[in-house]
Amino acid sequence: MTAPFTDLAGLRALLQELPAPDAAAQADAAARNAQLTKPMGSLGRLEELALWYAGWRGTSRPRLARPQVAIFAGNHGVVARGVSAFPAEVTAQMVGNFEAGGAAVNQLARAFGATMTVHPLDLDRPTGDFVTEPAMSEADLLAAMAAGWRAVDPEADLLVAGEMGIGNTCAASAIALALEGGEARDWTGRGTGVDDAGLARKAEAVAQGAARIVGESDPLQVLRQLGGREIAAMAGAILAARHHRIPVILDGFICCSAALVLHRAAPGALDHAVAGHQGAESGHARLLEALGKAPLLSLGLRLGEGSGGTLAIGVLRGALACLSGMATFAEAGVSDG
Ligand SMILES: Cc1cc2ncn([C@H]3O[C@H](COP(=O)(O)O)[C@@H](O)[C@H]3O)c2cc1C
Ligand SMILES: O=C(O)c1cccnc1
């Protein structure tokens, strides 16, 4: 499948023509939820989660049959500044590990019944060092976003977008700072575990990258300037999911930085997405606040790869099993008070 855009104007048009959920299906689901054998509201956020999903899928008794975890990988020029605890080669090595089934996210995808696809993006061509130059050309940005779009299986009924890219917490922090403002240190965390000196170098790179493009208010240009390809691809995938009416579970800090670009580009662009978890990367809580999303889980994860989003598939499965499988008061002969 090709992506339905070839230039930034085409992409902007897609951001302005966002499909809405099916209000009738959602109302049917809400009516059903009100009759199920439980005190109203007793399943807490599971109830709103199930109704949200029902609306996007256009059915009042949905089940999860084909969840997809799509993982995008990219390399970052900024790594040469010593902003990660690991070398850039690890990105390609981990792609091999994903393909062989050995990574954490492989186990989680299997445990929660999801298909996993892996999409390396020009790994031998790192993005430009965003401190001194644009991370990507316009052509690079469009190619990465189109790769993200194409990666989404139109037959999937849920998408988790994940990433691998040594140095990408630095790029994600720079994007967040450029779009949300504040101080570099508020958005900069330890990623793979940099020491204090590494954290200081990283915050400096984040500050300088954002300062280089100060005044740039176009979220797509901010993404192009600060990178990287896997972040752009996640943004493309989340937007494709919207057009296919596939609900999305967001992952950690890096995935949420990709989501922030869409959120700032078009209000409501993330209505088809929920936050899977709040991780340990400092800045993730602030980023979720900027997105206006409350996380489903909070487990201290700081891995990425789509791991937290994939874990949250279990929560969604539980929510849908209750909405679609429970008996009503009338069916079960239970007095409804
Ligand atoms: C073995 C290994 C597996 C990973 N899986 C995800 N990440 C995570 O760590 C990286 C971001 O951290 P930083 O910005 O500090 O480089 C990303 O690749 C992210 O997916 C990994 C990192 C490593 C080392
Ligand atoms: O929150 C994340 O996605 C994250 C945090 C640390 C390292 N890699 C990813």
TrEMBL record:
One of its GO terms (biological process) is cobalamin biosynthetic process. The keyword Metal-binding does not apply. The active site is at 305 (proton acceptor). The keyword Glycosyltransferase applies. GO terms for molecular function: nicotinate-nucleotide-dimethylbenzimidazole phosphoribosyltransferase activity. It catalyses: 5,6-dimethylbenzimidazole + nicotinate beta-D-ribonucleotide = alpha-ribazole 5'-phosphate + nicotinate + H(+). InterPro entries: Nict_dMeBzImd_PRibTrfase (IPR003200), Nict_dMeBzImd_PRibTrfase_bact (IPR017846), Nict_dMeBzImd_PRibTrfase_N (IPR023195), Nict_dMeBzImd_PRibTrfase_sf (IPR036087). SUPFAM superfamilies: Nicotinate mononucleotide:5,6-dimethylbenzimidazole phosphoribosyltransferase (CobT). Pathway: Nucleoside biosynthesis; alpha-ribazole biosynthesis; alpha-ribazole from 5,6-dimethylbenzimidazole: step 1/2. CDD domains: DMB-PRT_CobT. Keywords: Cobalamin biosynthesis, Glycosyltransferase, Transferase. It is an enzyme of class 2 (transferase). It comes from the Bacteria. Catalyzes the synthesis of alpha-ribazole-5'-phosphate from nicotinate mononucleotide (NAMN) and 5,6-dimethylbenzimidazole (DMB). This is Nicotinate-nucleotide--dimethylbenzimidazole phosphoribosyltransferase. The lineage of its organism: Bacteria, Pseudomonadati, Pseudomonadota, Alphaproteobacteria, Rhodobacterales. The gene is cobU.
